[in-house]
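During the second half of the funding period, the structural biology subgroup turned its attention to how the target accommodates small molecules. The most pressing case was zinc ion, which had performed well in the primary screen but for which no bound structure existed. We therefore specified the complex as follows and requested a full 3D prediction, including the ligand pose.
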Amino acid sequence: MISFMIKNRSLNEPSLSTSKKRALHGTFLHITDFHPDPYYIANSTIKSKCHGGHPKNKKPRFAGTWGTSISSCDSPMSLVNATFNWLERNWKDKLDFIIWTGDNSRHDNDNNNPRTSHEIFELNRMIASKFLETFSTRGIRGKNKPQVIPIVPSIGNHDIFPNNILSPGPNDILATIYKIWEPFIPGNQRATFLKGGYYYTEVIPKKLMVISLNTLYFYNSNTAVSGCKAPKQPGTIEMEWLTNVLKQARKRGMKVYLTGHIAPRKKQYTKSCYRAYKKISIKFHDLILGHYYGHSNMDHFFFIGANKDLGKFKHYIEDYTEDYDNYDKEQFKTLVNKSPSKINKYLAKLYNHYRSVPPLTEGVGKEYAVVHINPSIIPVFYPALRVFKYNTTENKRPKSHDPNAPSHINTFLTPLGYTQYFINLTVSNLFPDEEPEYVVEYTTWGDYHMKDLTVPSWINLARKVTNKKLSQNVRNVLWKKIEDNLVVGTKPLIETQSIESLSKEPEDFYDF
Ligand SMILES: [Zn+2]
Ligand SMILES: [Zn+2]
């Protein structure tokens, strides 16, 4: 019998503090894919999904106390608790808001312990409570309700039953998730959420809005819906809603971060939804300052752009491809000569994608948006999270719609960089009695030499790692970092493991 039921929260439930003026710290957290597993048993076999059994062979790999990297096991509760404890010790009262992009239950990968919808919602309730407990501040002398900083969750494909399938709303699933997330969703967004599972929060009132998209209506594995073209499809309605919210935001002089679980990739979205997302990103590039997603576990960034307008840069582009799901072995030969593992193939695609970005001449930047994939807490690789810095210096000039601006120049609310923190589980599991701490893995300013996270800065980085005119040394050092970071420092582990379990179940590995 598992015991992760939590007590009713309603009495001391903190209320969302978006209305009062708060001093800004200039930092926010992006965290994703907890995948907590109450069945996880330390020292059991990996074959059992870390759910039991005793290792038989001489050199067994078994479930570590704090989690098991390069396996298809989910997160032990010890890791979830260590994560929130670390956040409380280090970041409580230091963050302005939190982006939290879904998958708060375990995978359905164990036939002996199939998931139920009850379990999925209980695990979601448990993670939601942990956010509230960790980031709530007490009311003054018990008189005021506790307050919590804006926390913006979005729905993952593993937060629903069955996986991936969500019918148009309103429906019971959205109603149940709403109940769990009520402390996070602004009251005026209730009806929107109940109907579509998406909403926005003004994380800095009248200035910055984080839009939480329900990407399940764009996801090509969701067979209950069909794209973003037919008028009554929930995807179409969501894109229309998004367009309207962005128009309003532009009118009010606000800036926007877009967030959700599944990133806009050709491989993951239906064709019409991918196109619609791309179009909107470019059309509103003057106010969308970031695109933050989870689901894929691998730390990386990629570009989306409006193909039709790229014609004018034709003389730069020999092989423009936005579709980094295509693998061109020839072009990558010089960098990857090891066995073409799935990860190396993925890296090859990414390299080709970066290679196809034209140099940053007049107008090029405006044709692109940059999508960020955050690494996960579930230790597919090592568990990791990001703390972003953003620009809090308010520009006093009158608000005006400047199409050359903000996703392209460093200004008020521009993300400036992030520190990625991780836990090296190989080391931590040697000390089962010592709760691990997250430590710095890398920073965008230190390791990628980026002065901010505007679109031109990302284009420059992509160009630096692939431009043959630059010194090979510079290119190799940077590319090596991108390679290592993609798998959160577990490359040596991947290369020494037979990774049998991985090649058998790539869907668990990538969470696609
Ligand atoms: Zn996931
Ligand atoms: Zn997912």
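Two results from this model are relevant to the next phase. The chain has one domain: 10-16+26-510. The first strand starts at residue 15 and ends at 16.
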